[in-house]
Amino acid sequence: MIRFDLDAEKKLIVALDVDDAGLAYDICHGLALPSAIFKIGLELLFNGGIELAKRLSSDGLAVFIDAKLLDIGNTVERATAQIAALDAKFLTVHAQDMPTVEAAMRGRQGSALKLLGITVLTNIGESVLRQQGYDLTLGELAERRASFAAEAGLDGVVSSPREAAAIKARFGSKLTVVTPGIRLGESNSIAADDHARSATPREAILAGADYLVVGRPILKAKNPRDAARSIIAETSAAIQRRELSNGG
């Protein structure tokens, strides 16, 4: 049981969706989760997030820079190299084409930085794809972009729980699947918010997710530490069930 609990804590990515780096730092240490990963998104990056990343890395905590890079190749490559110097564990880049993901791969050379390709943002629905001119389903587009990530050698992808199973079935251990849009079910006071394709921790793990990104269900809870531990417990149980069903 101890092994599973530790594994479950390692699979938790806490989204620091606040606009103050000092508050974010306090949240990280207040949760007392030394094996979890802490995600710094765009809002926080532009308000002390870079220095926060350095502080957290110095404290021995794992940092996820959710920059969602998308630009010309030279810019993506150089930005990736700069972020790699922060000793972050993960960085996101849009996996919408090969030139973008290949540029990120060049930029991370010589570092331990792991690259995650964004497939389809979790706020996107089928109607939005039609507006953008795609004639693919969400699942088809997610798999196509996952194939770019796999071909370029990225470490994994970011995918909603609804596409995680298909990506895992096709790419297996070649791609780590990181799943945002995690909610705690109907009894939880936090709704799906801007995530059109959400799931509970149990549902996401059983679908094949390797890491869960959780923000508001923890940050907005009356007791964030208890909320985080509840998610870890649910994740742990799901890991055990998945391993048993896989014959582990």
CATH class: Alpha Beta
Report the portion of residues in β strands: 5-15%
Taking the sheet with the most strands, its summary is: 8 strands, parallel, barrel
Query: What fold name stands as the CATH topology?
Result: TIM Barrel
Overall tally of structural domains: 1
- The Cα radius of gyration reads 17 Å
Indicate the mean pLDDT.
91
The fourth-level CATH homologous superfamily is: Aldolase class I
Counting DSSP E segments of at least 2 residues, the number of strands comes to 8
Structural class: alpha/beta
Question: How would you characterize the overall build of this protein?
Answer:
Helix 5 links the parallel strand 4 and strand 5. The chain is an alpha/beta fold. It has helices at 2-10, 21-31, 42-58, 73-84, 98-107, 126-131, 138-152, 161-171, 201-207, 216-219, 224-245, and strands at residues 12-15, 37-40, 62-69, 90-94, 114-118, 156-158, 176-179, 211-214. Strands 1-2-3-4-5-6-7-8 form an eight-stranded parallel barrel, surrounded by seven helices.
